[in-house]
Write a structure and sequence with these properties.
The chain has strands spanning about 5-15, 20-25, 30-40. By secondary structure, it is an all-beta fold. The termini are far apart. About 0% of the residues are buried.
């Protein structure tokens, strides 16, 4: 599978917790997607503590 070609990329929103980016891309078949939105997040870990009472 061929990769998409990114023609233009611009950040819409940036925070320390994640970013929202809009890309203009060309697909391998030649179709252009004007606004392909990408959420960027840093690595993180979620934890859920469950306490049982007797």
């Amino acid at each position: 599978m061929k990769k998409w070609q990114v023609i233009k990329s611009e950040y819409i929103y940036q925070t320390p917790f994640g970013n929202l980016r809009s890309d203009k891309v060309v697909l391998p078949n030649g179709h252009i997607i004007e606004n392909y939105y990408v959420n960027e997040f840093p690595d993180w870990v979620n934890m859920v503590a469950v306490c049982h009472q007797k």
